[in-house]
Structures are given as C-alpha cells and as structure tokens.
Amino acid sequence: MTHVDFRTARWRKSNVSGETGCVEVALGLPMVGVRDTKDNGSGPVLVFTPAAWTSFLDGLVMGDFTSDRPSN
Question: Which one of 7, 22, 39, 47 is CB 3.0 to 4.6 Å from 17, fit for a cystine?
Fold first, then answer.
C-alpha cells in the first residue's frame, strides 16, 4: 500500500454533522483518508484506495448497509 501523509490534507465533513462529531474525509490524494472529528485531528486515519471508497459510496446509495435490506 502507498504511504500517504495526511498531516497537510484538506479534511471535509458533512454540512449536517452535529456538535457531537462526525467523520471527516480527505480526498484528492493518492489514497482517501477517513477520521473521527471527536479526536480533533489527532486520532487514527482509515485509508482506502479511491476505488474502494467509490465502491463504499455506491453501496450507501444502493442501501447495502441498511438494516432493512433483505438478507441473501
């Protein structure tokens, strides 16, 4: 896996995230970083390939991660 330095990344979070925290995503780098805002930028970063991140987002749109999805 490629090492990416996220210290200077531009982190973005949802406009609807609340006071209690949310997740932030760093895009535009060789890898996609995801972190918890409650750690104030000092916690661990989950790292995904852009293809894996796109697949995850597609799954969200398709409802793959909802509890009301029929099991196979």
Answer: 22
Helix, strand and coil percent figures for the chain, each rounded to 5: 20, 25, 55
Give pLDDT tens digits along the chain (72 positions).
Answer: 567 889 889 999 877 777 777 889 999 999 999 998 887 778 899 999 999 999 999 998 998 888 775 665
Dihedral class, residue 35 (left if φ above 0, else alpha if ψ from -120 to 50, else beta)? beta
Burial classification of residue 60, based on how many CB atoms lie within 10 Å of its CB (0-12 exposed, 13-18 middle, 19 or more buried) = exposed
Question: Which residue, chain included where needed, has tokens 């398709």?
Answer: 62
CB-based burial, 25-58: b 16+ in 10 Å, e otherwise: bbeebebbbbbeeeeeeeeebebeeeeebeeeee
